[in-house]
Amino acid sequence: MIRFATVLFLFMSFAAGAAERAAAPGTVPLPPPGEYAGKLQEEGGSGTADVKLSIRDVTKDGRVTAHVQASPARIACGKPLPASGIMLNDGSMKLEVDAGAPDGCERVYNVKAAGGTVSGTYIEVVKGMKPKAATK
Questions:
Q1: For residues 71-110, b (16+ Cβ closer than 10 Å) or e, as one string?
Q2: Phi–psi pair at 68, nearest 5 degrees
Q3: Measured distance CA(34)–CA(57) in Å, rounded
Q4: pTM for the complete prediction?
Q5: Contacts of 47 (CB under 8 A, 6+ apart)
Q6: Domain segments of the chain: what residues?
Q7: CB atoms within 10 A of CB 54
Q8: Nearest-CA neighbor of 109 among 85, 136, 75?
Q9: Is 16 left (phi over 0), alpha (psi -120 to 50) or beta?
Q10: Nearest-CA neighbor of 102 among 72, 80, 71, 131?
Q11: Burial class (CB in 10 A: 0-12, 13-18, 19+), 7
Q12: In angstroms, rounded to a whole number, what is the distance separating the alpha carbons of residues 38 and 19?
């Protein structure tokens, strides 16, 4: 029971933080659907990626659906992958490539899109990573 309460508390804390940063409907100009391209910097790293962002829809409440294609990437990750996310108060978007992406291709993008260009950062998300065993 204590575990359930702890998990519930952590989930609610995360949800409250995301909702606080999410843009209120009508307060941020929404990027129009279309194609955007640019070079993104790996957050906390030295990597870069050329990214093509195809915004499919931005709802009035700030939900974003898109496809993202990054290069260089593994063969499985080099095709346009579905992304979804939210508009943030500063006019940027937080997009996640997760559902429908091959294993090892998951990424989180923190980007701004305007005038056909995209700029920002990305984070590689590696699922199932096991920590190295401690040596005695």
A1: eebeeebeeebbbbbbbbeeebbbbbbbeebeeebbbbbb
A2: -125, 135
A3: 9
A4: 0.73
A5: 41
A6: 2-124
A7: 16
A8: 85
A9: alpha
A10: 80
A11: exposed
A12: 28
CB 107 within 8 A of CB 44: no
Phi, psi of 85 (to 5 degrees): 180, -160
Beta bridge partners of residue 57, listed in sequence order: 65
For residue 73, give the nearest of 49, 108, 107 by alpha carbon. 49
Question: Is 125 in contact with 108 (CB distance < 8 Å)?
Answer: yes
> Nearest Cα to 39, choosing from 130, 133, 125, 117?
117
Q: What's the chain's Rg over C-alpha atoms?
A: 17
- Tens-place pLDDT, residues 19-38: 556 656 567 788 999 999 99
Residue showing tokens 């990437």: 73
Give the three-class secondary structure for 35: strand
pLDDT tens per residue across span 70-119? 998 888 888 999 999 999 999 999 999 998 888 889 999 999 999 999 99
